[in-house]
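Q: Hi! First time doing this. I have a protein sequence and I read that you can turn it into a structure. Is that right? Here it is:
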Amino acid sequence: MAELFMIGGALFWFFIAVVIIGFFIAIEYDSFVWSTIMFAATIGVVSWLSNLHLWANIAEHPYWTAIIIAGYLVFGLVWSMYKWRLYNIKMKEKFKEALEEKNNAISFAKPKFKDNEWRILLWWIYWPLSFVWTVINDLIKRFFKYIVRKLKKVYEAISDSVYADIPVLNPAELEGLVLGRAERMVENKGMGYYCIEEGQEENAKELFPKNGNLVILVLEPIEGKDNDSIVVNDPRKERKVKKAWIW
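A: Yes, that's right. Below is the predicted 3D structure, encoded as structure tokens:
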């Protein structure tokens, strides 16, 4: 069987590919256990099917073995610190994105060392594969994501030019926005709008004729105010839109 796995043979490269893919999957999911199982299985298979005599070589050269292991661990320690920084930056970006989507404060806990000990150990012990996967999956992806974000206005301008003759507006996009921003979005679509207080929806439907080009903006209530009247074009731009629909 060993002949089938000769270095350079088809089965050898197939085995190497399976091992690398398995390692990358384990690292992607931050699984120290599966990474260790893959490592142990690889060492066992290579020792059994090859003539490398790994353990004998280690026993014959303990000095160089110790130097190589020490250097490996030092590099791994430095990489784990850098990787921990990248991980925190990634968590911070996810929090900021979620905050922008919800337009309000959300709960967030800073990553703690005690909750990520196995993850850090994975980065340390298996740093060569962690480094390669980070370059492939994180840094390159982060670079292209950065470029796309810088070109955001270009992509939006292309979309706007395509739909310039159609008043496309999703009322759900207005909910949670401050009034001034919501007004600008409606006006950019060439549509009219009216602002009303919460609870006056039915009155608004009776008051304003339905023409399909009017946006009704229901404002969040003001504490201590009796919302018993319709407010048209409220000048207090800091108020937020609670609901919106096209009428």
